[in-house]
Amino acid sequence: MNIKTLRYVAGLALVVGTMAHAQSNYPSKTITMIVPFAAGGPTDTVARLIAQSMTKTLNQQVIVENVAGAGGTIGAARVARSDPDGHTLFLHHIGHSTAPTLYRKLTYNSIDSFEPIGLVTDVPMTIVARKDMPAKDFKELLSYLKANKTKVTYANAGVGSASHLCGMLFMTAIDTELTTVPYKGTGPAMNDLLGGQVDFMCDQTTNTTSQIKSGKIKAYAVTTKTRVPSLSDIPTANEAGLPNFEIAVWHGLYAPKGTPKPVVDKVASALQTALKDTTVKQRFGELGTEPVAAERATPEALRTFLKVEIDKWSPIIKKAGVYAD
Questions:
Q1: SUPFAM superfamilies in the record, alphabetically (predicted)?
Q2: What is the pTM of this model?
């Protein structure tokens, strides 16, 4: 073996040894969990709950950073460019599966630019309105919307957000086009709904439950097959007169592509521990959701599920003709 070959082998051994050491010592610093929406929204709430628990398991602080804009694609792009060492994580919802169809010029690939870690939760949606909306029930709401479609304003958290997708399906289901008011996050949209600046929206229970229970907004229906235990007096859309209108917002955790498998597995284990955490389960329940089953909180399950969801939403979005630059 000549000198050049010996140097190459030694260098390779050094690199491999350094990588193995880094993986065995993971995490070696604070972990940043990117949420691609404004603070105070439903995805932010989910992230902060599991981040608190994962902090204890990983023995390093897991902080949540909100990188909002463009329906979650700005935050996603930032994570895709991050070092694949496990110190940058990404929590996104159903919008991660719709972005490939909604956006013509993504700088990343929803599948190929990330390492899936696991599913987190499926969150029901609620159809809610300002507290002084005249309609007393869902049937009256539909009549009101159809009669005032040029005046009614529908808030959402921006193109590709869960509230945007729900609203798009809702308007298709009732065959009525309403004036849409996009925001840079569900938090700001909810603030304007509370203030009466907009009329109604379709949002996740994690963001609406406390507002509904306090009487600050009016709830008309939930978008699940069965009623939500924490909001048991609110009918499903099917019960209220809109058959087969069902949508739940799933959340998944990711790392940048190339993150070593031992690191991915360690984060996945911490996620699974978080989803069994009594405090997390209790808070999820109060917010109208629950952790996914253990077999869904794995890299393999999220990888498969994401592909299925992309295939599911692509024809729906194309038929609606909704795109963003």
A1: Periplasmic binding protein-like II
A2: 0.82
